[in-house]
Amino acid sequence: MACFYSAVDKPLLPLASATLERTVYIGSMSKLISPSLRVGYFVSNAELVQRASQEIMLIDRQGSQPLESATAELMSETIRSYARRVHAIYKDRRDCLAVRLRTVFDDEIFFDVPAGGLAFWVRFKTQVSLEKLIDVARTLDLRILPSNLFYSDGSVPDGLRLGFANLDNSEICEAVDRFHKAYLIAKDQG
C-alpha cells in the first residue's frame, strides 16, 4: 500500500534570518550529511565570528583543515540542492507515517505531525505498559528505544518516540503494522 499525504508547510526559518546582530545560528553537518562528519558551523555577525574563531583556535588546534575546507566547499556548491532533496524525502516519509498511523490505529493514539525533526511523539488513549510494548515490538523485529532516553529531567514519559528518517514508505507501512500488532499484544497482556 502506498502512503501519500498532501500537506502544505513552510520551513521554519532560524532566528538568524531576522537579524545577525543579536543571534547566532549553530548547525552540524552530522545530521544533514552523515553522523561521522563531525563538523559544526555557526553564522552570526562578522565581529562575533572573528572572536569565536580566535577562541576556537585556543581550544581546538586539532581540527582537520582539509575536512573543514572540503565541507565549506560542499556547503557553498552542493548543500542547498541536497538539503532541498532530503527535505522533500523526509517530508514524504513524515506524511506517510502520519497517514499510516491514522489508518492503522484509528483513534487509539494521539500525535501531532512534527513541523521539524525526524520523529513523532505518540501517546496512547488506552493505558499500556510502554516497557511491555517495547519488549513485544522487539519480538516482532521492531526496535523502539525507551522513552526515558529522551527526557533529561527524570520524569516518566507518557508516549513513545517513533523515528522515520531511515525508512522508506513501504518500510514505514510495515513498521506501523508491526507496531500496531505489538500494541494489541501488550495491551491484552495488561
Structural overview:
- This protein has six helices and five strands.
- With 190 residues, the protein is mainly α.
- The strands form two sheets. Strands 3-4-5 form a three-stranded antiparallel sheet, with helices on one face. A two-stranded antiparallel ribbon has the order 1-2.
- α4 (79-105) packs parallel to α6 (169-188) and α5 (130-139) packs across α6 (169-188).
- The longest helix has 27 residues, at 79-105.
- The protein is elongated, with a radius of gyration of 21 Å.
What is the rounded distance between the termini?
31 Å
Poorly predicted parts: 1-8
Please tell me how large the radius of gyration is.
21 Å
> What is the tally of beta strands?
5
Q: Beta-strand percentage? A: 5-15%
| Number of separate helices | 6
* Main sheet characteristics: 3 strands, antiparallel
Helix content: 40-55%
The chain-level mean pLDDT equals: 83
Q: Structural class of the secondary structure composition?
A: mainly alpha
Any idea what the shape is?
elongated
Order of helices and strands: EHEHHHEEHEH
Strand order of the largest sheet: 3-4-5
Write a brief caption for the model:
This protein is mainly α and 190 residues long. 46% of the residues lie in helices and 11% in strands.
